[in-house]
Specification:
Structural class: alpha/beta
Radius of gyration: 20 Å
Strand content: 25-35%
Number of helices: 8
CATH superfamily of the largest domain: Dihydrodipicolinate Reductase, domain 2
Number of domains: 2
Length: 311
C-alpha cells in the first residue's frame, strides 16, 4: 500500500486529485502539507479530517521518517517545486509526483533535473494525457491519414482572477497541448523548427510552429479569459481528410456529464474515461510494483517543447 501525502491545498488538490486517490484501491491518504492554507478551506473536501501540517519537519514529527511506501504529490505551481521538495528530501522523502510543467525556462528545468538526479529520487510527472485513451485514439486515427499537413489546437477557458494570479498561458493549458502533441508523435521539437508568436498577452497566446523536417504546420491557441471551455485538436492531411479530438471531459462529484470524443470522417466516438483517475492508478502501480509511468526522463522532451515555445 502506498501512503500519499498531498502537498498544497489549491483547487486541484482539494477538488480533483485527492478524490481519485480515495477511489484508488492501492493507496491511502496520509495527510496534507500546506504552509499557508487554513484548515477551514479543507471542509467539505476529501482532505477534510486528514492530518494537516505546515512543514516537512512537522510531518516527520507526526509520522516519523518517510519510508519506501510514502509518496508526496506536489499539487503546487512550478516556481514552488524546489522549495517544497528540498525540506522533504532532508527528512528522508524519496518518491514524488511533480506538477507539469516542471519549469518554463531552460535554467529552471536544469535546476530541478540536477536536484532530482543528485538526490536519487523517484519522480512521476502528473501529465494525464500521457496515459489517456483519447490520446491513444488520436494517435491511431492520425496514423490512418496521409501526411498530416496542419494541426490546430485550442485549449481555452475562463480563469478566475485568483487563478490568474498564479497561472499564465505557458503554465495553464499549453502544457496539456504539448503533452498530446508529443504523445501522438505529431510534434517532436527540432532546434530548426520555426516558432512564431502571433499573439501574446497576459492571458492569451497564439503560436505558429513550422516543422524543420516535414511540411507540417502547427497552430496553438489558448485563452484564459474565453467564454467557452475548449479542448480541441484537429489534424488535416493533404487530401482534405481530418481528425478532430475533443479532449474535454466534465465530471462533477465523480459523475460524468460529458466524455471526450474522437471524430473521423463524420463518425464520432465517445471515450468513456476519467483520465486523471487512469493517471493516478498508473502512477500508484509504478511506485508499488514497478509498472511503467511517466518519469522525469520521459517527460523532459515535453518540457523542452514548452521552453522552446516560450522562447
Amino acid at each position: 500500500m502506498i501512503r500519499v501525502t498531498i502537498v498544497g491545498a489549491g483547487h486541484y488538490a482539494r477538488s480533483i486529485v485527492t478524490r481519485k486517490y480515495v477511489e484508488c484501491p492501492n493507496c491511502s491518504l496520509q495527510g496534507v502539507i500546506s504552509p499557508r492554507t487554513c484548515s477551514e478551506r479543507l471542509a467539505g473536501t476529501p482532505l477534510e479530517g486528514l492530518p494537516f501540517v505546515r512543514t516537512a519537519a512537522e510531518w516527520r514529527e507526526l509520522h516519523g521518517p518517510p519510508t519506501e511506501h510514502d509518496l508526496f504529490d506536489l499539487c503546487i505551481h512550478p516556481h514552488a517545486i524546489l522549495p517544497a521538495m528540498q525540506p522533504l528530501v532532508e527528512i528522508g522523502a524519496h518518491a514524488f509526483v511533480l506538477p507539469k510543467p516542471l519549469a518554463t525556462t531552460a535554467a529552471g528545468l536544469g535546476e530541478i533535473v540536477r536536484f532530482v538526479r543528485d538526490s536519487g529520487l523517484r519522480v512521476a510527472v502528473a501529465s494525464q494525457w500521457h496515459y489517456s485513451m483519447v490520446t491513444a485514439k488520436l494517435r491511431e486515427a492520425v496514423g490512418s491519414l496521409t501526411e498530416p499537413l496542419c494541426v490546430e489546437a485550442d485549449f481555452s477557458q475562463r480563469f478566475s482572477s485568483d487563478q490568474l494570479r498564479h497561472y499564465t498561458p505557458y503554465t495553464a493549458l499549453l502544457p496539456h497541448m504539448a503533452q498530446i502533441l508529443h504523445s501522438t508523435g505529431l510534434w517532436r521539437h527540432d532546434p530548426g523548427d520555426r516558432i512564431v508568436k502571433e499573439d501574446e498577452t497576459a492571458t492569451r497566446l497564439r503560436i505558429r510552429v513550422g516543422s524543420a523536417t516535414t511540411r507540417l504546420e502547427i497552430r496553438l491557441h489558448t485563452d484564459l479569459q474565453a467564454g467557452e471551455r475548449r479542448r480541441v485538436i484537429t489534424v488535416k492531411d493533404a487530401t482534405g481528410r481530418q481528425v478532430t479530438a475533443d479532449f474535454l471531459g466534465v465530471f462533477r462529484d465523480g459523475t460524468a456529464e460529458k466524455y471526450p470524443a474522437i471524430e473521423t470522417d463524420g463518425c464520432r466516438e465517445q471515450i468513456l474515461e476519467d483520465n486523471i483517475a487512469v493517471m493516478i492508478r498508473r502512477e500508484i502501480a509504478g511506485f508499488l510494483d514497478g509498472a511503467a509511468y511517466l518519469d522525469l526522463d520521459h517527460y523532459l522532451p515535453v518540457n523542452a517543447m514548452l521552453v522552446a515555445l516560450r522562447g
